[in-house]
Amino acid sequence: METYDGRMPALYIGHGAPPLLDDPIWSGQLAAWAQDLPRPKAILIVSAHWESAPVSLSASGAELVYDFGGFDPKYYRMTYRTPDATALAERIAATMPDTEPVHQHVSRGLDHGAWVPLRIMYPEADIPVLQMSLPTHDPERLLRLGERLRPLRDEGVLIIGSGFLTHGLPFLRDFRIEADAPGWSRDFDAWAAEALSAGDVDTLAAYSTKAPGMPYAHPTVEHYSPLFVTLGAATDPGTPGLQVIDGFWMGLSKRSLQVA
């Protein structure tokens, strides 16, 4: 891989569901964000929808994973074929210690937590992309994982944690995109926004006991956990990042972060 003259940022984004592709507001925000970034030479994305240990990497060029149901058939016909990412896989493996081996999956492609936002941000699909599994929900371990990946940013790799800052789907009553956010979603979002603004990683990591709106905001935590990979990949995890997108979608927080 060529060396990038500078350091790519790292991102934490909300990825929504396939109808995000037809939402002009949120998709416009994601597209504009991508245009403001340096062009990456490769992308490594950690999605909430692949929980697997040990750390695993998707197969470059494999078919997409349509891990959703009940949506318009057009979404199951969508493709996102990106260039070969073998060089990126080799570099990722090289960043890991012997105690954290990397499994190269032979057939798994990108799931919707990866290809839906990337289809908006980089619609030409001309950048090598790999997805990494989420091997744990322990914030400290994920911070260390992000720290190991940090050197890749100096080589032009855009590191993305893809989740949803609130994800209490079982507790939603209104599934319209413009639905009002429930109190638990607003409370968790405001708490997280304050902690992110302060660069308070310890508070963010103590969400289970400190965050209002729990456990409704995250009855399971896989959509929150990718945040810690992003924070770990930051040059200084305690330095506040830029909260690029905020607001709600189906009542869930789409707050998204860029760290230097």
TrEMBL record:
Its cofactor is Zn(2+). GO terms for molecular function: ferrous iron binding; oxidoreductase activity, acting on single donors with incorporation of molecular oxygen, incorporation of two atoms of oxygen; zinc ion binding. The keyword Zinc applies. InterPro entries: Extradiol_dOase_DODA (IPR014436), Xdiol_dOase_suB (IPR004183). CDD domains: 45_DOPA_Dioxygenase (cd07363). Residues 30-236 form the Extradiol ring-cleavage dioxygenase class III enzyme subunit B domain. SUPFAM superfamilies: LigB-like. Gene3D superfamilies: LigB-like. Its EC number is 1.13.11.-. It holds the Pfam family LigB. Keywords: Dioxygenase, Metal-binding, Oxidoreductase, Zinc. Belongs to the DODA-type extradiol aromatic ring-opening dioxygenase family. This is 4,5-DOPA dioxygenase extradiol. It comes from Nocardioides thalensis.
